[in-house]
Specification:
The protein is α+β, with helices and mostly antiparallel strands. It has a single domain, classed as Chorismate synthase, AroC fold (4-Layer Sandwich), CATH 3.60.150. It has helices at residues 52-62, 122-129, 145-163, 191-194, 204-218, 247-256, 277-280, 351-377, 401-423; strands at residues 3-7, 11-15, 19-20, 25-30, 36-42, 80-83, 85-86, 89-90, 95-100, 166-174, 177-178, 226-233, 261-266, 284-286, 292-294, 302-303, 306-307, 312-318, 328-331, 337-340. The protein has a five-stranded antiparallel beta sheet with strand order 3-4-5-9-6, with helices on one face. A hairpin with a 5-residue loop joins β4 and β5. α1 (52-62) crosses α8 and α3 packs across α8 (351-377). It is globular and about 70 Å long. Its EC number is 4.2.3.5. The chain crosses the membrane at residues 404-423.
Length: 435
Amino acid sequence: MPVTLHVKNSRWIQAAGSTYGNHFRVTTYGESHGGGVGCVIDGCPPRIPLSEADMQVDLDRRRPGQSRITTPRKETDTCKIFSGVSEGLTTGTPIHVFVPNTDQRGNDYSEMSLAYRPSHADATYDMKYGVRSVQGGGRSSARETIGRVASGAVAKKILKDFSGTEILAYVSQVHKVVLPEDIIDHDTLMLHQIESNIVRCPDPEYAEKMIAAIDAVRVRGDSVGGVVTCIVRNCPRGLGSPVFDKLEAELAKAVMSLPATKGFQFGSGFAGTFLTGSEHNDEFYIDEHGSTRTRTNRSGGIQGGISNGEIINMRIAFKPTSTIGKKQQTVTRDKKETELIARGRHDPCVVPRAVPMVEAVVALVLVDQLMAQYAQCNLFPVNSDLQEPLVPVLEPEEFPLSRIRLLVCMFTLLAAILGNIVSRKPGSKSTEMYP
């Protein structure tokens, strides 16, 4: 949360922090070439099964050195939980996760201690703070996202157990290679399709073209950008709060906080501006379960800033990596023009490793919004005539195990109450303080 600091001339300001969320709060810490990175998760519900292995799956998808089209930096990114979990269950107290840095090479950044990398945060960090961490870019490095991916794995687990919610991201564009939108079926897309190749594009033919595009610039010491598409299936209805906390606004804020992001659109996006209202509107109907659905999904699963239970889809644009091995014109910290050829180990294209990062921050938004929705609108009995269930109606094989456990507990409690009533003799009084 923001920290208030006192400055000269009796002015008070709020210092920007590294925390996201109101109910499910995540603070990330650490730098690329420091001792390590990590996060603190505050507000996680208790009694959720959790271990390092749950986080390690996504951390392994994010880690450097996976293939020739990612940075050659070698890190195992092995996480350790230091608090908030006891005997395999969350305790409801802050969860502290730490990942050590083991393959730093600070000498690679000697030139960049004096000269600014074009389009990098070097110059703006100096402009803002008057000091910066030179090695690895400090907090501006994508290594900071380890904390987000670890906490996002917890959020994904909560959403999956609660409502069967699935969050899947994949690469849909690298440089000029664009995956046609109608090729991928968002209703049936599976994680193994995305993970079947090193670029994380679910279509094998386009994946090979994307890999070739990255290889072409990698050997020249250059870089390219791309687009990551993210979908959310079985999203609880009713998430998002007008007017400033609309769901798409929160999602945009979260994904645009990732390094190298330059654009965000959801649903029909900018293409929707070429349609008329009659062409763009998603017409309603009642499905076989009695739920209100839409025949099309140009709204991208969000209407009026609130989720409607349809698939949420969004696209995030990432710019080419700033640090490249080609000669560029720049200036030094003492304001002298110079040339720079950056050394070090860097991704020729960030989008393959950005996939789990996008999934993570989307999960953080949704779980925070879910907790807010329960606190505001589901604390008391709902208006069943108008309010749709938070959780979409699922087929039996899709029904989350946690929901079954909840129903069992509810029926057990009801049986105990009824049994207690039946066992009492007529006219007897309860000895309980709160009968």
